[in-house]
Write a structure and sequence with these properties.
Rossmann fold, 43% helix, alpha/beta, 15 helices, 407 residues, Arc Repressor Mutant, subunit A
């Protein structure tokens, strides 16, 4: 297994602490591997294997523990047969167990344990868990692979075959960041069917079944609209109007319900607009990005025509990995792709494919020049030439993703 350092470092801050570690993310984004890496780390730190309880609720072996009472009794029985050392409890895809939040809340009180749970929908952060754990939990969100992790996995699996960084970045844009694609040797004929299977699994288990959605065709038409409009601002009404033009009707309220369900399954991310002058979040018109753009390419096909939106998606996810809250900046007569906020830090970003003409340079730089503050401002593109000017920093996207600077 290849270590995912950014997440392991976050989790280490809470190892052994009296809070439940809630590890969330889209299916197949790597949550189970994180648990296995944690188990290895505990064993290296002299925690006995018999003091570690690891249960995967997608495995048939856990069917006898399919309800809350049985799970509670099983863990309590394990605890009473151990010595007085702390029990490390690792429960993978726990959302499969109805009433799991009560079990976790009770175990935290009843036995000496260090608890780690994973799940593939935002139900793990619902009001129920907040009430059951009374604030005694911390969320660690797992995302798909970053470009830096993509390079690590490619090297670790022996897939680089002499590819330079530009070709590896092209693979990253085409196939996305789900770790499992590296077991397919980055082969289109193998990767795209694999991604479609994951998409169908997420849709069925975490959206359709969970939210009892009946009209699956309209749900998928909504998803296709989102895929065609990555990086564009739009409203639920615009989706409704689009469907009407296809002689299909779906209310704005139902569309919002669909969007909430897709977001809950960690398939998409909503980004609200921020009024730069009024300093407030605007309640209408948003952008949506995908947790894995490889799935989008598997469904629609990869096209150079969509690369600008794809690059925005890449930058958005990287900012999330780095711990920023993200907004679309709305000025009086201009828009800024991202305003990234982290504690007292604010950074502005424009993202484009290439600064290929004076008109493009003006279009990308002028919105940032309109913002009258001293926070850092970046234009990111795939250009190899440095176009920095008037305090606006231009960076090559590949370099920025890897934290590198060039002269």
């Amino acid at each position: 297994m290849i270590a995912r350092k950014i997440y392991m470092e976050k989790i280490r801050l809470f190892m052994g602490k009296p809070v439940v570690k809630v590890i969330t993310g889209m299916r197949r984004s790597g949550k189970s591997v994180i648990l296995k890496l944690l188990r290895e780390e505990f064993l290296k730190n002299k925690v006995s294997d018999e003091n570690i309880v690891y249960l995967d609720f997608e495995s048939m072996s856990t069917v006898p523990l399919a309800n809350a009472d049985e799970l509670y009794s099983y863990v309590i029985n394990k605890a009473t047969h151990k010595n007085k050392k702390r029990l490390v409890l690792m429960l993978d895809e726990i959302q499969q167990i109805q009433g799991w939040e009560k079990v976790i809340g009770s175990l935290r009180i009843d036995i000496n344990c260090d608890i780690y749970i994973t799940g593939s929908n935002s139900g793990l952060l619902s009001a129920d868990i907040a009430a059951a754990l009374a604030g005694r939990f911390v969320q660690i969100r797992i995302h798909t692979l970053s470009f830096a992790e993509h390079l690590d996995f490619t090297a670790g699996m022996g897939e680089d075959h002499g590819k330079d960084r530009n070709r590896q970045f092209a693979d990253f844009l085409r196939f996305g960041g789900l770790p499992g694609i590296h077991e397919m040797n980055i082969n289109t004929d193998a990767v795209y069917p694999y991604l479609l299977d994951i998409y169908n699994s997420v849709l069925l288990k975490d959206v359709i079944s969970r939210y009892r959605i009946r009209d699956i065709e309209l749900l998928e038409r909504t998803i296709h609209f989102l895929m065609h409009n990555v990086g564009n601002i739009f409203s639920a009404k615009r989706i409704s109007d689009f469907l009407k033009n296809q002689n299909r009707r779906l209310s704005v309220e139902t569309i919002y319900n669909y969007l909430d369900a897709l977001e809950s399954a960690f398939l998409i991310h909503k980004v609200s607009r921020w009024d730069i002058k009024g300093k407030r979040v605007l309640e209408t018109l948003e952008k949506y990005y995908f947790e894995d753009f490889g799935i989008k390419n598997a469904i629609l096909g990869y096209s150079e025509d969509s690369i600008s939106g794809l690059l925005e998606n890449v930058v958005y996810l990287e900012l999330r990995r780095r711990g920023y809250e993200i907004y679309v900046g709305q000025g009086v007569n201009y828009e800024i792709d991202f305003i990234a906020v982290r504690r007292d830090e604010t950074v502005y970003f424009q993202v484009t494919y290439l600064l290929a003409s004076p008109e493009t340079i003006e279009r990308e730089f002028s919105p940032l020049l309109s913002v009258n503050d001293n926070f850092p401002k970046y234009v990111l593109s795939l250009d190899e030439v440095n176009f920095s000017r008037k305090g606006i920093i231009h960076r090559n996207i590949r370099d920025w993703l890897l934290g590198e600077k060039r002269a």
